[in-house]
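Example record

One chain of 134 residues, shown exactly as stored in the release files.
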Amino acid sequence: MKVQFAVPMVMAAALAGTLVHAQSQDAEALSKVGEGEVAELDTTTIRKYGETQGSFNVNIKRQDGASSPGGITPRTVRFMANCKDGTMVVAAVGLFDPSGQLAKTMVAPPRSIDEVKPEKGTQEAQWLRRVCMY
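Predicted structure tokens for this chain:
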């Protein structure tokens, strides 16, 4: 009986430690795609606000599906796009636990993160181009 109780407690503690490490980083740091991770534009989240503004989500996870080194969890990053200026900025990051449940949402206050203009040919530039096509 003691072993059955101890195993779930150890697993819960390990999972909590992973999320705490990821939560200690800011939204801008968590929006970066790390080594061994893949990022995918979620085209169902693309929204346009007038002719020049838009938003979209990017899902970031490990290539092999395993947990990331350093405790970074799978996450969804919400970007705001300025099609007129060709820039984008992180608006929020959702962190997911290993079971796929949303564990935390980090919202970046307006103007707390600088807008960036992606370099031509990068994955970010492709995302921005697709968003601005809508």
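Notes: Residues 1-23 have pLDDT under 50 and may be disordered.
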